[in-house]
User: What shape does this take?
Amino acid sequence: MPNPKVKLLPFANISNYVEGFEIVSTQWGGDGLVYVLLMNQIPERKRGMFVQSKLFYQVTMKEITSVVD
Assistant: This one.
């Protein structure tokens, strides 16, 4: 179990990593790290709910993970 007393800075500048991408999701993981999921192109949803199971174009995703010293 990670240490629950983690000191976080009030902000993190991730602007160098998000150019050309959109933040899709952020999450505080069970391991105590913060995860940010980015995509260069967000697929359209069918009926506002479901992402298409087959895309006709390439989507690039990347993940940024926080590191606690």
